[in-house]
Each structure stands twice: as C-alpha cells, then as structure tokens.
Amino acid sequence: MPNESIYRIRFVSQGDVYELYARSVDSSSLYAFVEVADIIFGERSEILVDPSEEKLKAEFEGVKRTYIPMHAVIRIDEVVKEGQNRIVGKGEGGTVTPFPMPAQPKGRD
C-alpha cells in the first residue's frame, strides 16, 4: 500500500489548536462529527522528546478512532508525508479564535 493517504487535521479543543496526522478521515454516522481513525505517531529518536507529542500520545493512547465536532475543525489536508503531532497553545503563536457558541437562552435552568 505505497499510495496510502495521510491527512493532517487541525482542530480546536479546550482553547488549544491540535494538529494530528491520521490515515483515515471520514464523515461520521454521528451527526455533525468528523471521524478520525489510525492516528499516526512517528517513530522518533528516543534522545529528543517533544513534550507536546508525548502529551498527545498519552491522551490518545488506546483510542481506535475519535470523533471531532465539525465546528471545531479548522482544516483537513491530504499530505505527502506525516509530520509531528502537536498542540499549539494559546501563547505559542496560535492565531485561531474558537467559533463563538450561542449563549444560553434566559429563563431556562
């Protein structure tokens, strides 16, 4: 399978921008969700450890597929080769503002 597609998915989660690489991206049977499966974690040198990628490995450990709300997705690209999964924090040059959510209607408890 030398022509297997690789996708870069950027989405917002809890105010941070996540960038993941995966082999499968599809619309979900769950309404308004994007299904991401087969997340790729590169086989990097054990000498250099990126704390951002290690946090993602721990967060997605044992996850077969994840469902991301469509309104949280910033961009999905099909890429030639995988890159490094990472979390871009608020103070690390992240220029994406989360889509504003509607306020709760007044009078409802």
By DSSP, the count of extended strands is 6
Task: Return the structural class.
Answer: mainly beta
Helix count, per DSSP?
1
- Number of domain modules: 1
Percent helix range: under 10%
Task: Give me the Rg, rounded.
Answer: 16 Å
Q: Give the strand content.
A: 35-45%
Helix and strand succession?
EEEHEEE
Distance between the termini: 54 Å
Query: Mean pLDDT, as a whole number?
Result: 80
Region (Disordered): 89-109
Protein name: DUF1820 family protein
Pfam family, one: DUF1820
Give a short summary of the structure:
By secondary structure, this protein is mainly beta. The chain has 1 helix and 6 strands; from the N terminus they run βββαβββ. The chain has one helix spanning 51-59, and strands at 6-13, 16-27, 33-39, 65-69, 73-79, 86-88.
Structural overview:
By secondary structure, the protein is mainly beta. The protein has one domain. The protein is built from one helix and six strands, in the order E-E-E-H-E-E-E. It has one helix at residues 51-59, and strands spanning 6-13, 16-27, 33-39, 65-69, 73-79, 86-88. Strands 1, 2, 3, 4, 5 and 6 form a six-stranded antiparallel beta sheet that branches. Strand 1 (6-13) and strand 2 form a beta hairpin. The longest helix has 9 residues, at 51-59. The protein is globular, with a radius of gyration of 16 Å. Residues 89-109 are annotated as: Disordered. InterPro entries: DUF1820. Pfam families: DUF1820 (PF08850). This is DUF1820 family protein.
